[in-house]
Amino acid sequence: MAGLLKWLALAMGTACAGIGVLHFALGIDSVPGEAAAGATVDSRERFYGAVFLGYGLAWIWAARQTPIPARVVRWLAGIFLLGGLGRLLSMAVHGSPQWFQTALTVVELALPPLYFWLAAADERAVAARPSPRRAERVLP
Questions:
Q1: What is the CA 27 to chain-centroid distance, rounded?
Q2: Could you tell me the end-to-end alpha-carbon distance of the chain, in angstroms, rounded to an integer?
Q3: Are 82 and 19 in contact (CB under 8 A)?
Q4: What is the pLDDT of residues 76-107, one digit of tens each?
Q5: Domain presence at residue 135
Q6: 82 assigned to some structural domain
Q7: Residue 125: which of 75, 63, 74, 66 has the closest Cα?
Q8: Does residue 93 fall inside a structural domain?
Q9: Which residue segment(s) compose the domain that 44 sits in?
Q10: What is the pLDDT of residues 34-76, one digit of tens each?
Q11: Residue 58 resides in a domain
């Protein structure tokens, strides 16, 4: 499970960091159907791009830890889930967005439960392993 969690966390971090760089660099041109939105939306898009870059880097940091900190994975996955719930709220208020945004909503709602499950499984596996400190106490 640890290998799968590490791989998925690295993939998530790389994807989010890349998306953040893209949105930061392109502004509103990175969002389908928003090219004419104006300076205010472009400014917001570039700001969110920087935040999403940082979010991706947090995933990469977590994936590089040994063991991967389950609490951090849960927080990051929870934030991702909250983003998907925000998209659902937007759909309820404003209707269906461009098709790619709908596809992203599915990903944002489907992946967090997988991360929650993997983090819990990895946490249990780490707890079950004998630690060097426990072994030292047992030795005479």
A1: 21
A2: 34
A3: no
A4: 999 999 999 999 999 999 999 989 999 999 99
A5: no
A6: yes
A7: 66
A8: yes
A9: 2-129
A10: 777 789 989 999 999 999 999 999 999 999 998 999 999 999 9
A11: yes
